[in-house]
Write a structure and sequence with these properties.
The chain is of the alpha+beta class. The protein is built from 11 helices and 16 strands. The strands form 2 sheets. Strands 1, 2, 3, 4, 5, 6, 7, 8 and 10 form a 9-stranded mixed β-sheet that branches. Helix 2 runs parallel beside helix 3, helix 5 crosses helix 6 and helix 7 packs across helix 9. Heterotetramer of two alpha and two beta chains.
Length: 404
């Protein structure tokens, strides 16, 4: 498999990104369209927040349709908590794109991200959709990846090329997310395309399982958004033998999808609002998969842990404390804990007890911008990974004036 940190064009797909006037800054694109020239099967996962934006509620229904050929996305306005008018606006976005591409509205999905509770400026969005539809291109994904961003500092794109039955297959993904990020998805949108031939049932299985170990294992600030979704389309243009069961070929496809989703998840975690460091938790020795995930998630979501890493303070007690209230089953007296970066690796805890600490080495390790927290529960064979970032002064500054 070949991995690329860019969006490699996928056979049969086109995209466009434009500025239509939702955002104040005219240099920032704010509307994107993704289009499959042929019918595609689709799969999705959605936010667990009870307060769901209109596009989420509509897509939760439309994702069950046999085919999907297009997605329209706007940034700068979440279309959440906007009442019946918000639903009508989302449906209007769908019908406008459907008319432009000669599709049924049932074949179009919609996504929004941005400020909550503000009416959609449809007088700007409708012309924007028409412009994007008229400029669709196989090389339009760079612009499309920009049109979905809000407070992100950069685009997030990953692609993997591999073979199935001697047929070249591509999976390419783009995502946005920087704040309001918490396990069980985040203020994030993800759009993943593939030319693989796969049934809708197996595509949904692959995506759901992959999201569980990627996007659902990141945290920036502990807030789960109203608009989160990951949508995947597969149009079968690679002409491989259709993947219709859980076998070796499916596992190969799933492994490629995992690479895309994990890398995108890490990019979101690293780009947390105000973040200076990417933190990765590698936890092993869990009694069960659930125990391992609970402990790993709890570490990465702890504001005290995140604050300590911002200050490059080797306050390992906060790590053990966060595991203790996670709900995961483990024996504290068995735990071993390490911190690691490119500056080295240091053990801080053995058999649940703190070791004599080389403060100088610990500081050097924690001053790096990519740090691993390595935990061995020594209580089983299950493992989990989670990703997050430090919590800085700038996070408060950004979110204190988000609407302005």
């Amino acid at each position: 498999m070949k991995k690329y940190y860019e969006f490699i064009p996928v056979s049969g797909f086109k995209a466009a990104g434009v500025y239509c006037g939702i955002k104040k800054d005219k240099s920032k694109k704010d509307l994107s369209v993704i289009y499959s020239e042929t019918k595609a099967v689709s799969a999705a996962t959605f936010t667990t927040n009870k307060v769901k934006a209109a596009p989420v509620q509509i897509n939760m229904k439309n994702i069950n349709n046999d085919n999907t050929q297009a997605i329209v996305v706007n940034s700068g306005n979440a279309n959440a908590c906007t009442g019946e008018k918000g639903f009508d606006d989302a449906l209007n976005m769908i019908s406008t794109l459907a008319d432009e591409l000669n599709l049924s509205p049932d074949e179009v999905l919609v996504a929004s991200t941005g400020i909550i509770g503000v009416p959609m400026p449809m007088e700007k969005i409708i012309p924007g959709i028409k412009e994007a539809a008229s400029t669709l291109s196989p090389i339009g994904f760079e612009d499309a990846s920009k049109g979905i961003l809000t407070t992100d500092s950069s685009t997030k794109t990953v692609s993997v090329e591999f073979t199935i039955d001697d047929k070249s297959v591509v999976i390419s993904g783009m995502a946005k997310g920087s704040g309001m990020i918490h396990p069980n998805m985040a203020t994030m949108l993800g759009f993943i395309l593939t030319d693989a031939s796969i049934t809708k049932k197996m595509l949904q299985k692959a995506l759901s399982d992959s999201v569980s170990d990627s996007f659902n294992m990141i945290s920036v600030d502990g807030d789960t958004s109203t608009n989160d979704m990951v949508i995947m389309l597969a149009n079968g243009k690679s002409n491989n033998k259709i993947i219709n069961m859980d076998n070796g070929i499916y596992n190969k496809f799933k492994a490629a999808l995992d690479i895309v989703n994990v890398e995108l998840a890490k990019m979101i975690a690293k780009d947390g609002e105000g973040a200076t460091k990417l933190i990765e938790v590698n936890l092993s020795g869990g009694k069960s998969k659930e125990d391992a995930k609970l402990c790993a998630k709890s570490i990465i979501t702890s504001n005290l842990v995140k604050s300590a890493f911002f200050g490059s303070d080797a306050n390992w007690g906060r790590v053990l404390c966060s595991m203790g209230y996670s709900g995961g089953d483990f024996i504290p007296e068995d735990v071993e804990l390490f911190f690691e970066s490119k500056k080295g690796k240091i053990q801080l805890v053995k058999n649940g007890v703190g070791l004599s600490l080389d403060e100088k080495l610990a500081k050097e390790i924690l001053l790096e911008d990519y740090i691993k927290i390595i935990v061995d529960l020594k209580n089983g064979e299950y493992s989990a990974k989670a990703w997050g970032c430090d919590l800085s002064y700038d996070y408060v500054k950004i979110n204190a004036s988000y609407r302005s």
